[in-house]
Model the fold of this input.
Amino acid sequence: MRVSVVIPVFNRRELVAAAVQSALRQDLEGLEVVVVDNCSQDGTWELLQGIEDPRLRCLRNENNVGLFGNFNRCAAQANGEYTLFLCSDDRLEAGFLAHAAGLLDAEPAAALLSSRGRLIDRSGRDGGTIAGRFAPGRYAGASIPAAWFWSNYHYGENPLNYPSGVLFRNSALQACLPFREHLGAPADVDMYLRVLRHGDLLITDRIGCAVMTHADQEVVKRRAGGELTRQNLALLEEYRADLEAAGIYDRMRRQSAVLVVAALVRTALSDPGQVLRQFRAFGRGIWELLVAATKFIVLRSLDGLFGLRFTPYLRTAGGSAALPVAASSTEKRKPTSG
Done:
């Protein structure tokens, strides 16, 4: 088996069929598609029974095991050399799996491949591209935690794609399971960083998936009340040792205040009366928030005006630092963090 596409699903009757079909249409020998229904109550399971293809297996949990509990169940079903978690509201781009598997075949020291993503709404309208911060290439896995946190906190974007655009070498994935559910929404990023302790990172310029943005998306739900911000701040503490080894933990702790700024702005727009309460709950000083926000604005402005991006701490597999890269004048991106 070459590639396992595993699809965790819960109450996505209107969307899951398109996700499944985007996987089955991939031009790749040795493909399996495994859907694990997490006790849906909206007819998702019944819909899946009507999709016939010998490469497709559909399973149903006896009880709802939670979002990342279902990711773990999916991972246990993967038989391929490579594994991709396709979110049930996303779509794989045509030809992506053959392209990604070929790159990993050619780089046996790589444990994970990340592509670019394309944002769409429920109508399929384009919302820009994501995961474009790291230039194409192969990077030392040990360098990624420092580079990821620096990029995320200074640009407000996850430089790696959503799971639907990330291909794991299955041996490395299995060595790192389970997903750590207590981390909440960032448990997927946590898995990327842990897998990269087992090998290098490949970045391709190819768009691997279409990521649907909508009100029922997990990350949207968890932004309410600052929950996602608290989870992202907790992720920093999980990687304190890695960041201290790189000599940047204290700087990242201060710059993480930009996540608090973003949470406070969202609160001010949606529920102004809660801003002071949230500010006190996060326990950050005004000066710390202002400095972090200023760095964010300056770097985003340099990118927007001159196409200049920085990727400090990112090391190529040969050991040299990645250089700043100029953005394509036609590329659009959307913030994904916080």
About this structure: The chain has two domains: 3-212, 220-315.
